[in-house]
Design goal:
CATH topology of the largest domain: Rossmann fold
Number of helices: 23
Strand order of the largest sheet: 11-10-9-12-13-14-15
CATH superfamily of the largest domain: Thiamin diphosphate (ThDP)-binding fold, Pyr/PP domains
Shape: globular
CATH class of the largest domain: Alpha Beta
Number of strands: 21
Strand content: 15-25%
Mean pLDDT: 94
Low-confidence stretches: none
Number of domains: 3
Helix content: 25-40%
Oligomer: single chain
Largest sheet: 7 strands, mixed
Length: 574
C-alpha cells in the first residue's frame, strides 16, 4: 500500500542516503543548492560537513565511500560541480560510489532565460550541460525538473550507484528540492548482476585446467574485491587452494598482510625485490577484481595468455572472454571446484622476510625508505596501524610504501589507478569520518600544494590527522620519466618540474594546525612519539628530502628501456 505521507524531494534523498549508511554529506555552499542545504541542516541523522574547496569536498566524499560504501557531496551549480570533476572521475575509475548533489536555475528563472535571453550566473547558457558533462564519469546523470516521479528517479540512480560501485549526478531545478513527493517505501538494494551459468562453468573449467597445469601459480587481488565486499570469499579461496597471493598497489591491505601466504604487494618493477623475483617465475596469475594499469605492462607483456582475469562482470583467459560472470559467483564456484581435488591446498612457501636495513647514523638525511620504515616501526611498536589509515597519493612515497609489509586489513588508502595529485590530503577528511581511523597522510609536495586548503577543514573538524609532506621541491616522477639523469650528481632538472619553496610550519600555523620540519633520522625519531600522542587537531610535518634523492622504486619504474618508460615515450610516428 502506497504511503500518503509527503516529504520534500530533498528529504526523500536524505532518507535514502541515511538508509544506505551515509551519516555525513560534504558540501560547499551555493545559492542554487540552498534548498537542499537547508533540508540537510534540519535533517536528523546526517551531518553537513562544510569544506572550503569543491575538489577537497569531492575527495572527502570519495574517501568516505571507501569505508562506508557510499559518499555524498553537495555543490554549487556549474562553478562548483565542474571544479569537482577530477575527483569524481577518480571515483568512477576506482569504483567509489559518490552522489553529486546540485541545483540549477528554477522554473521562474528559466522563463526569463527563455523569454529574455538572460545568461544566469554560473551558467554556460546550456541548461543541460551538467548531466552532459557528468554522464561520462557517472552511471546515472539526471535533472529533476519537477517533483512528479522525483522519488523513482532518485531511487533508480542510487541503485545504479550501489550496484555498479560508481558515482551518480543528481541535479534539480532550484525550486524542486523543496517541493513534496511521497515518502520513500522499503529499502534499496543492489541489482543482481547478469549471470550466465554456462559462461561461468566454462570459465571455471578453463581456470581449473590452467591452475592444475601451472608449476608456480599465484593469486592477485584487486580493488574490486574490496569494493564489492568479497574479502572473506577471497580469503576462503586462498586458504583452500594454498596458493600464494599478492595484491595490486590500489588494493594493498585488502586482506591482512600478516597472512602466511602473502608474498608482498605487487607494484610492477617498483615492488619489493623479493616480490618481483617471485613474480618473475610465476606461470599462471589468477587476477581477481584487478584493474590493470600501465604500471603492470611488464607483467602483461611477458605472457598475457597466462593471466586469468575475473572482474565484477566477466572473466577472461588471454583473449578468450566469458561474459556475465560475476566475481562473487566465480569465487564460490572455484572454491567448490577445487575443494574435492586432492592436489589442494598446495604447500605454501612464503617469501623470506626482507633483509633488515642497517642502522643509519642519527644525522643521516631522510629519504623515502628511511622515513617510511621509521614511521612503520614506531606505529607497530605502539600497535597503532589497526586504528589508522595510511593514505598516499600519486607521488614517489606511494611506490616506496608499496614495499611496506605486514599491514593490517583496510589500513592503506591510495589513488593509485587515477593518480590525481592532492587526493591524499583531501580524502583524509572522509576517511576519518567514515571509518573512525586516524589518517596518516604521506603527500608529495607538488600534490599537497594543489589541495593544501583541506588542512583547514581537518582543523575545523578537530581531527588528529598527521600530514607528512615529502618536500624535495620537484615533481620527481615526472622528472624521472623526462630525464632520469637529473638525479645524478651534477644533473639539472627541467624548469617545469621545479617547485617553489614553501614554509610549511608557518602554513600550518596559519591554518591552526601544529607545524614541524624534520630533515634527519634523529629529528624524526625525536618528533614521532610527540606526534603520535597528539589529539584534537592535525599536524603538518615537512619531511625534507634532498632534491636529487630519487626513490629506488621510481628509479626502477623509470629506468630507460623498462616497459613503462617505453610506453610513456611512445609516439604516433614510432
Amino acid at each position: 500500500m502506497a504511503s500518503n505521507e509527503l516529504v520534500s524531494v530533498a528529504d526523500y534523498l536524505l532518507i535514502r542516503l541515511q538508509q544506505l549508511g551515509v551519516r555525513q554529506v560534504f558540501q560547499v555552499p551555493g545559492d542554487y543548492v540552498s534548498g537542499f542545504m537547508d533540508a540537510l541542516e534540519a535533517f536528523d541523522g546526517i551531518d553537513a560537513v562544510g569544506d572550503i574547496n569543491e575538489m577537497g569536498a569531492a575527495y572527502a566524499a570519495d574517501g568516505y565511500a571507501r569505508y562506508t560504501g557510499l559518499g555524498a557531496v553537495s555543490l554549487q551549480y556549474g562553478v562548483g560541480t565542474f571544479s569537482a570533476l577530477n575527483a569524481i572521475a577518480g571515483a568512477y575509475v576506482e569504483r567509489n560510489p559518490v552522489v553529486v548533489i546540485s541545483a540549477s536555475p528554477s522554473d521562474k528563472n528559466r522563463q526569463l532565460i527563455w523569454s529574455e535571453d538572460v545568461l544566469y550566473h554560473h551558467s554556460t547558457g546550456d541548461l543541460e550541460v551538467g548531466p552532459k558533462v557528468f554522464e561520462n564519469i557517472t552511471v546515472a546523470s539526471l535533472i529533476l525538473a519537477d517533483n512528479s516521479g522525483a522519488g523513482a528517479l532518485i531511487d533508480r540512480a542510487l541503485v545504479a550507484a550501489i550496484s555498479q560501485r560508481r558515482p551518480i549526478y543528481l541535479e534539480a531545478w532550484q525550486n524542486v528540492w523543496s517541493e513534496t513527493c511521497p515518502r520513500p517505501e522499503g529499502l534499496l538494494a543492489p541489482l543482481p548482476q547478469a549471470y550466465d551459468p554456462n559462461s561461468l562453468n566454462a570459465a571455471l573449467d578453463t581456470s581449473r585446467q590452467r591452475l592444475n597445469q601451472a608449476r608456480s601459480p599465484v593469486i592477485m587481488l584487486g580493488i574490486e574485491v574490496a569494493r564489492y565486499g568479497l574479502q572473506e570469499q577471497a580469503l576462503r579461496l586462498i586458504e583452500a587452494s594454498g596458493l600464494p597471493f599478492t595484491t595490486t598497489l590500489e588494493a594493498k591491505t585488502v586482506l591482512d598482510e600478516s597472512h602466511p601466504q602473502f608474498i608482498g604487494t605487487y607494484a610492477g618493477t617498483a615492488s619489493r625485490l623479493e616480490t618481483s623475483a617471485f613474480m618473475e617465475q610465476v606461470d599462471c596469475v589468477l587476477a581477481l577484481g584487478v584493474i590493470f594499469t600501465d604500471d603492470y605492462l611488464q607483467l602483461l607483456a611477458k605472457d598475457f595468455s597466462r593471466i586469468i582475469l575475473v572482474n565484477s562482470q566477466q572473466a577472461r583467459t588471454g583473449l578468450q572472454y566469458y561474459p556475465h560472470v560475476p566475481l562473487d559467483a566465480y569465487l564460490d564456484g572455484l572454491l567448490h571446484t577445487l575443494a574435492p581435488d586432492p592436489r589442494y591446498p598446495l604447500a605454501s612457501h612464503p617469501l623470506p622476510a626482507a633483509r633488515a636495513a642497517q642502522a643509519a647514523p642519527a644525522e643521516t638525511p631522510l629519504d623515502y625508505d628511511l622515513f617510511l620504515n621509521t614511521l612503520d616501526q614506531q606505529m607497530r611498536q605502539r600497535g597503532l596501524w589497526a586504528s589508522s589509515s595510511l593514505i598516499l597519493g600519486e607521488s614517489s612515497a606511494l611506490y616506496a610504501a608499496s614495499n611496506l609489509n605486514g599491514l593490517p586489513r583496510d589500513s592503506f588508502v591510495a589513488d593509485a589507478i587515477w593518480g590525481s595529485l592532492g587526493h591524499e590530503t583531501g580524502c583524509a577528511l572522509g576517511v576519518a569520518l567514515g571509518s573512525g581511523r586516524r589518517p596518516i597522510v604521506v603527500a608529495g609536495d607538488g600534490g599537497f600544494m594543489m589541495i593544501c586548503q583541506s588542512l583547514s577543514t581537518l582543523v575545523r573538524q578537530r581531527l588528529n590527522a598527521l600530514v607528512f609532506v615529502m618536500s624535495n621541491q620537484v615533481y620527481a616522477i615526472e622528472q624521472a620519466f623526462v630525464e632520469i639523469k637529473a638525479f645524478d650528481p651534477g644533473g639539472e632538472f627541467a624548469p617545469f618540474d621545479v617547485l617553489p619553496a614553501w614554509d610549511y610550519p608557518a602554513l600550518a600555523q596559519g591554518f591552526g594546525a601544529a607545524g614541524y620540519r624534520v630533515s634527519t633520522l634523529a629529528e624524526l625519531h625525536e618528533l614521532l612519539p610527540q606526534l603520535l600522542e597528539l589529539q584534537g587537531r592535525p599536524a603538518l610535518v615537512e619531511v625534507v628530502i634532498p632534491q636529487q634523492t630519487l626513490a629506488p622504486q621510481i628509479r626502477r619504474l623509470a629506468k630507460p628501456g623498462s616497459a613503462l618508460f617505453v610506453a610513456r615515450h611512445a609516439r604516433d610516428d614510432d
